[in-house]
Design a protein that fits this description.
Blueprint (H helix, E strand, L loop, with lengths): L3 E2 L11 E2 L6 E5 L3 H7 L4 H22 L3 E8 L7 H24 L3 E5 L7 H14 L6 E8 L1 H17 L10 H5 L12 E4 L18 E4 L9 H12 L10
Parallel strand pairs: 3-4, 3-7, 4-6, 5-6, 7-8
Antiparallel strand pairs: 1-2
Helix pairs in contact: 1-2, 2-3, 3-4
The chain binds farnesyl diphosphate (FPP).
Length: 252
């Protein structure tokens, strides 16, 4: 059944969305919190706090539109280089977010998952994540996938090591290794690749995010800082996505 999400943007342009061509997997680099705070003479942690508050609206809208996977880049393997104060603030925000939102997420049938080296996060974060996974694991709605202590290179190296072990144990033979098989050694083994990767804040780079999985993703950039990235911007990103010509290396 064909479904249309009727919509107009602030300039009264028609940006209605084709309900049959909603990206299955959207991934977002939640960038610009620090600059958002600086513009307001606030500490960086306040930018992150505003960034976390913004997650609710985007998760809700992705659920409404029927997106299957939403991956949020919340903390990279390189973010440990930041001052301890900022790292601690981010960990605290993660715990607060999960504590505060898990009931609502559960009510909205969201499944909470994560990718990255979760085992190296502080135990309080791990406990709260475990609680969220457990509570939401049987839900059937949007899969909210938090990239935490995640790095694309780290994920690929980890995958190579796991594959090497399986080769050594003769669980698989080298001749059978192809990209589909290798994908099963990545954190994202149960997900499809991202169709659309969104990066607000004006930066146009991938920053070690989903390096393997982004082979045929469509990219969407905007100058808006993450705390200001609202439902209407998500709609515009999806609208632009629906007007792209995806050929996956082939021809039409
Ligand atoms: C990038 O902005 C943002 C991050 C490195 C962290 C994003 C994290 C959150 C929004 C909060 C934690 C997440 C959850 C799921 C609770 P930046 O600090 O690089 O901004 P800047 O480039 O303007 O300095």
């Amino acid at each position: 059944m064909w479904k249309l999400f009727s919509n107009r943007n602030q300039d009264n342009e028609d940006i209605s969305l084709d309900g049959n061509n909603i990206p299955r997997h959207i991934a977002i680099i939640m960038d610009g919190n620090g600059r958002w705070a600086k513009q307001r003479n606030l500490p960086r942690s306040m930018g992150h706090k505003a960034g976390v508050e913004n997650i609710r609206e985007i998760v809700k809208e992705c659920s409404n539109l029927g997106v299957k996977y939403l991956t949020l880049y919340a903390f990279s393997t390189e973010n440990w280089k930041r001052p301890a104060e900022e790292v601690n603030a981010l960990m605290k925000l993660l715990v607060e977010y999960l504590k505060k939102e898990v009931e609502e997420l559960h009510k909205n049938k969201v499944v909470v998952k994560s990718i990255g080296q979760i085992e190296s996060l502080p135990s309080i974060c791990r406990d709260e994540l475990k609680n969220a996974y457990e509570k939401t694991k049987n839900n059937t709605g949007l899969i909210l996938n938090l990239a935490l202590n995640y790095g694309g290179r780290d994920e690929i190296l980890r995958g190579i090591k796991l594959l090497y072990e399986d080769l050594n144990m003769e669980k698989i033979i080298l001749e059978d290794v192809n990209s589909e098989v290798f994908s099963k050694y990545l954190y994202t083994k149960d997900m499809c690749d991202p169709d659309l990767i969104i990066r607000p804040s004006g930066e146009q780079r991938i920053s070690n995010f989903l390096l393997w999985q982004c082979a045929y993703s469509e990219f969407w950039y905007s100058d808006i800082k993450w705390p200001d990235f609202k439902k209407e911007h998500l709609h515009k990103a999806i609208y632009d996505f629906q007007n792209r010509d995806r050929r996956f290396g082939g021809i039409k």
